[in-house]
Structure formats: structure tokens, C-alpha cells
Amino acid sequence: MAKVKSLADLKKMKEQLQSSISLREKSEHPEGMVQVKVAMATCGIASGAKDVMEFFTGNLEKRNVEAIVTQTGCMGYCYAEPTVEVKLPGQDPVVYGFVDVKKADEIIEKYIKQGELVDGIIPVNYETIDNK
Amino acid sequence: MSKYKMHLLVCGGTGCHASASNQLLENLKKEVADKDLSGEVQVISTGCFGFCEKGPIVKIIPDNTFYTEVKPEDAPDIVAEHVIKGRQVKRLLYKDPVRKEVISDSRDMGFYKKQLRIALRNCGFINPENIDEYIAADGYEALGNVLADMTPEEATKVVMDSGLRGRGGGGFPTGLKWDIARKVEADQKYVVCNADEGDPGAFMDRSILEGDPHSVIEAMAINGYCIGADKGLVYIRAEYPLAIDRLKTALGQAREYGLLGEDILGTGFNFDIEIRYGAGAFVCGEETALIHSMEGHRGEPTFKPPFPAQSGYLGKPTNVNNVETFANIPVIYNKGAEWYASIGTEKSKGTKVFALAGKINNVGLIEVPMGTTLREVIFEIGGGIKNGKKFKAVQTGGPSGGCLTEKHLDTPIDFDNLLASGSMMGSGGMIVMDEDDCMVSVARFYLDFTVEESCGKCTPCRVGNKRLYELLDLISKGNGTHAELDKLRNLSEVIKDTSLCGLGQTSPNPVLSTMDNFWDEYLSHVDDQRCPAGQCKELIRYEVVEENCVGCTACARNCPVNCISGERKEVHFIEQSLCIKCGACFEKCKFNAISVS
Fold first, then answer.
1. Which chain A residues have a beta carbon less than 8 Å from that of B202?
2. Which residue range forms the structural domain that includes residue B482?
3. Is the Cβ pair B258, A5 closer than 8 Å?
4. Fewer CB within 10 Å of terminal CB in chain A, N or C?
5. Distance between CA atoms of B367 and A77, rounded to whole angstroms?
């Protein structure tokens, strides 16, 4: 990757990155892609987030779901680890708590494939700096 | 995609579960099925909404209607009125306690505005191992703007104007600290990030480094520009392997992009960061001890002045800030000092991350604006006390802090209020205790920690804390007298006044604050040889309540030392001389036939 040489460079890069992330959602695949984020901080990993992550990466492809699985940090719901955020195209992200392999399977089959919510949603209870 | 038009979300958190939310869930499902709506309306249970005081909660999607204190009997009304006719069930809507208005849309509820994520803004949102995601989320823009448009003096002033205070414990104004380091003339200066998080129960620094390492790197570079340092060091405990890995990855990526190294963004500014490992000593969170440890010496504090800003790492001016403090910095530049200063209380600006632990339902990390009350944090965001027990105290500030009780619940949390209440902010650990916790044992636990972690350099801390521990041990065994209680208080005062560093100056706080707030409990241990919470093993007795014992033999079978005797269907007996007070019999008895006294 080339070096970022100036502030203008950085800003251009940010725009590209932002649009490439939204491109990834919209134009490249008209039906959109599912984004799965697994909270992989120490608390998550200690409660089995690695297995869940592997399950998602392995099974989504097998089941013909186009999805991006990424890891992220601690969402703060340590009591409900492992936690997984799923964003279906065009919808608000949904966070699921206490996700084990069985639950992950249910999330893929029910929520990702059919859009049915699954038990165990963790409601969002904070504001982000963007709205403040 | 979804064939459902409507979702009914029923809270399945511990608090709501206790008030029959599972029955409510069943009733709603049945009601929906009876009305032949199963194909259109889905009823599901969710995790805790964090609004347990008003539980059980039902939220309806897509219109975001928020029903509180819903009883199983309310299910027919919700389905008949809301689902079928589209009319809200007014009596179940939430009433704002202050404005007395009925609020139907959960997004308008003050409750959901209690948490505001600044330091944790990217934790759980971006992939910490991908610098592109950080850049897409405004990353390194603050650094770019500072380098392009501001002099070091102007850039420092932004932090001063924001009112940010150090998040590691003391609450020293960050901008002022930077300004002092900036004004000292030297050929070499250093920026140090203190990631030696040592308070039992605090884990926000680890989470930030694991979830958003670039924000710390960016802030350190800005700090370097402000004070005129081209070198940064992160002092991190080796017990945080994942945080170290992520930080290393992030450093590598930042270097690859030229955001660390020489001539950053073509401005001629050079800055790079190295990692130094600590062995996890609590005292190394103190900045002078931390610096000595980084230099390869013993981790012992030295007298201040000279402050690190004058003579720090290798004798050069050094600015030390904690991880959470740094994580706030990029946002302050991006959103402006004025914006930051508009959040929080008069003297404590911004937000604070708290790690909730102990007997609380929603253990986790939360971030609230300064000035939020303990009640809001513990009962609303934290979901209240586990198993419906009664709140007794919350320990803030780790081994340097104190216990706050019910009377402090409505005090707005900020640096100064916590100090005035006999505790301190510390790094933001909050350990919640319920009625089963003995305050003498709690004080003894913290002293045990301090004795272990004292570096041994100064006598008051090395010897004094050990004596405090022994006194507490004596009292918890029922062997204390009023003379010991007096000694405990006097010695605490002396240690506070005469210790060299922050560790000793604050270590008696758990003792003093529990004595102030729970004097009765100390008196019971001394006068009656009784532990009201039933925690101190030497002071409790397990006995069989003869009228209740049915002779089921469960206690005898579970006793690890076989000190319970008795035939089947006959009253049992506990041999006190053999009993180790493990409590196994008490837990196993289904007939309330074992008493603790």
C-alpha cells in the first residue's frame, strides 16, 4: 500500500474507503451483502467467539450467502458474550447476545436467509457521537 | 425476505424474567396464534433493554412503541388493540418522570440518551486490525488537520479548552499537563501511554486497545507534535496479549501508510512508537514508577517534583497519559473543544467509561457523560442487582477508592463529587455489592491486594498496610476490640499522610470509607462477634432447624467433611467442631432446615 503523503491524500482516501464500503453494499451486488461482525475482544474470545467466527466464515459461503464476516472490539455487553452484530442490506444492524454455534446456525437460517428475527437480541442503549 | 410485518420484542433479561416476562411471551405467542396472525407477526424474546426498573418491557417494531410494566394479562389487549387495530395501549406507555409526558417512541426516551460513546466510539464498530476502517471513520483526520493548520501551542490550547481531565485516576487537566511539557526546553522529549491497567475490575483500557488501537496511536502522535516529541512509548502489561497483538498490527499498518515514521503527511513531522512491557505491577501505574520500569530499573516511585514533564524517561521531559484519555483526543479535534466542553459537569467535562462488575445484572463496559448518577448507572444501564437482592454499596476507584452507599446513589458522578463522598474516580472500575457482602471482608480484600502490590520502598506503605491487614483480619475473626478499631483509624490516617506515592496515600481509603459508612457492621464484629452478612467464616454457625428437618439426608451427602449425622427421615445434627463453614448444607437444603447465625 502506498504511503499517505498529505492531508489531501488522507481525505481522498477516506472518501474512497467510505464509498468503497458503501459500494460493497449497493452497486457491486444489487441485492446487497450481509455484514456480520463478531466481537472479538478478550471477553468475547474467552466465551467462545472464535468458534462462532469460524462457524460464520465457514458456513455462510457453504450455504450460498454472500456476506462479509469481520471481527471487531468489545461492544460493552460483556455479560452476554459472545455478541454478534448482523446488518442486513438496507436495515438497521441487530446485535445478538450469547451466540454459540447453535445460535449462529439459527441466525444464518432464520435471520440472514429469511429476515425473521431470532430470540436473544440486545437492544442498543447508547448514543454515538454522530448524533450528538 | 421477511414475511413478517410486525415484531413484538419481549425483554428476556434477568430483571424482566423475574417479573413474569416468560409468561407474557407465551401469552403473546398464543394470542397471535389464536388470531391467526402467526404468519405476519413474530413474537421474540430479547436480551436486557437495561430498563429493568419498569420491566417487563415490550417493544413493537416497526413503530418503536415501547410498553413498560407489561403483565401477562395484558397480552390480549396488545394484540387486539395495537396489532390488529393499530391503536397504542395508552396505559402501558412509558411516562417521563420529569416531564410527566407519555412517550411512545423509544427513541425519544431520555433513558436511551444516558450512554454516549466517545472513547468507545469505534469499539464494536470497526475491525481493529484494519486501518482502512479506522480511516473511513474519520481516523487520522485530527492528526492531519493539526499538522497542517495548527502550531503546537494552538493545538495544545484545544485540549486545554476542552476541559479534558486524566482518565487514569487523578483527574489532572490533560491540556495543562501537555502545556507544561511543551514549555520545557530539551533536545529530546517523550510521549508515554500508560496502559498498565491494574485496578481489580477495570478493563476499559484493554478494550480500547483491543477494539480501537489506532485512536491511541493518533492521539499520541498529536501529543508528540504538541510537546515537541518524536518518540512515543506504550507501557502495557504483558497480561494483555490480545491488546499487544492488535497494537502491534496497528503500529505496523500506520507505519506502512506513513502515518508514523518520518515526514508524516509531508509536513516534516517525525514520530514513532515503541512498546514496552510491564510485568503487571499495580504500582507501575504511578507515572514515576512506570518510567523507572521502562528504563529497566525497579518499578518504584520517586518523589515529585521533579515531575515527569521536567525530568521523566531517561531524564528527558515526558508526558504520560492513560489509554482512555488518549482515546478522547481525536474526537476533541474533530468535533471541537467547545463541543466536548458542552458535555459533562462544570469541572469534569466529557464522558467516562465505567467497567461494571460484581453483583450486577449487566456486567460490561458503559460510557456515560460526567454528571450521570450512580442510580442511573447501576439500576438503569446496569440492570440492577443480581437475583433481586438489595443494593448495599458500590466500590469505585479500585484499591484507592472507597465504598459508596445508598445515600450516594443520586450524586452526579464526577471527579470532585466522588472525592467529596470519600471515594475517587480512579480508572472507572465499579464493583457492585449486595446485602450478602461483608464490608470488613471487602476492606480486608483490598488491603490484601495493597500489601501484595506495595513496592516496599517507604515504611508507611510497606509496614503500615500489613498492620492494617492484620487488624482487619483480627476483627473479621471476632477477636477485635474497640482499641483495634481506634488503631485502625489512626494508622489509616498516618499512612495516608506519610506515604511516598499515590498507592500508599490512598490504600487506607477502603478501610476509612467502610468504617464511615458501615460502622455498625464493624461494631457487630467487635461487640457481638457477629457478621451481619454471614460472610466471616469464624463468626458464623450453621445449625439444623429441627422443626423443618425432614431427614432427606441431602445435607449429609453434600457435606465435604462428613460432620453431619442423622438417619433417614430423622432430624440431622451438625458437629460444630468439625464444620468448616463451607455452606454446602445451607445451599442444598430444600426445606429451610439449615440456619446461619
1. none
2. 439-527
3. yes
4. N
5. 12
Give me the CATH code for the A31-122 domain, please. Answer: 3.40.30.10
The pLDDT mean for chain B works out to 90
Phi-psi region of B503 (alpha: psi -120 to 50; beta: other; left: phi over 0): alpha
pLDDT digits (tens, 9 = 90+) for A34-80: 889 999 998 899 999 999 999 999 998 888 888 888 889 888 888 88
Question: Of B194, B181, B183, B216, which Cα lies nearest the Cα of B319?
Answer: B181
pTM of the model: 0.85
Report strand pairing: B594-596 vs B542-544.
Answer: antiparallel
For B380, name the nearest residue in chain A, comparing CA atoms only.
Answer: A125
Confidence (pLDDT) at B39: 82
Number of domains composing chain B: 5
Instruction: Write the DSSP string, B449-502.
Output: HHHHH--S-SHIIIIIHHHHHHHHHHHHTT---HHHHHHHHHHHHHHHHH-SSH
Are A7 and B144 inside 8 Å of each other by CB? Answer: yes
Distance from CA of A107 to the nearest CA of B (A): 13
Residue B116 pairs in a beta bridge with: A127
Question: Prior bond to B369 cis, omega within 30?
Answer: no
Residue to test with chain A: of B365, B372, B431, most A Cβ within 10 A: B365
Does the beta-carbon distance from B367 to A126 stay under 8 Å?
yes
CATH number at residue B551: 3.30.70.20
Q: What is the dihedral of CA B487, B493, B497, B499, to 10 degrees?
A: 60
Q: Look at the block and give the residue holding cell 455462510.
A: A60
Domain boundaries, chain A: 1-30, 31-122
- The residues, any chain, with a CB within 8 Å of residue B413's CB and separated by 6 or more, are B352, B368, B370, B371, B372, B373, B374, B377, B425
Is residue B453, in this structure, part of any structural domain at all? yes
Residues recorded for chain B:
597
ipTM of the complex: 0.80
In B, minimum Cα distance to A83 occurs at B124
B164 lies in some domain: yes
Cis amide prior to B56 (ω within 30 degrees): yes
CA triple B451-B452-B454, angle to 5 deg: 65
